[in-house]
Amino acid sequence: MSDLTEELYRRVYLIRKAEEAIIERYTGDEMKTPVHLSIGQEAVSAGVCYALTPEDQIVGSYRSHGIYLSRTLETDRFFAELYGRVTGIAKGKAGSMHLASKEHGYLGSSAVVGTYIPVGVGAALANRIRGRANWVAVFLGDGAIDEGVFYESLNIACLKRLKVIFVCEDNGLAIHSHAKDRHAYDAITDIARQYPCEVFSSESTVAEEIHALVSRARAQAEESHRPIFLHLKCYRYLEHVGISPDFKFGYRSESEFERWKAVDPVLMQRKLLACKKPEPEIARLERSIDAQIAKSIDLAERSPFPTAEEIHRDVFA
Amino acid sequence: MSGSATAVRRELPYKSAIAEALAISMRRDPSVIVYGLDVPDHKRIFGSTTGLIEEFGPERVFGTPLSEDALTGIALGAALNGLRPVLVHIRVDFMLLGMNQIANMISTYRYITGGNFSAPLVIRAVIGRGWGQASQHSKSMQSIFAHFPGLKVIMPTTPHDMKGMLISAIRDDDPVICLEHRWLYEAVDEVPEGDYTVPIGEPSVIRPGKDLTIVATSWMTVEALMAASILKETGVSVEVIDARTIAPLNMEPIFESARRTRHVIVADTDWVYCGFSAELAAQISQACWGNLRKPVCRIGFEHVPCPTTRPLENLYYPNAETLVRTVEKQLGLSAATNLSGREFYSWSHRFKGPF
Ligand SMILES: Cc1ncc(C[n+]2csc(CCOP(=O)(O)OP(=O)(O)O)c2C)c(N)n1
Ligand SMILES: [Mg+2]
Question: Is pLDDT above 50 for B351?
Answer without folding.
Answer: no
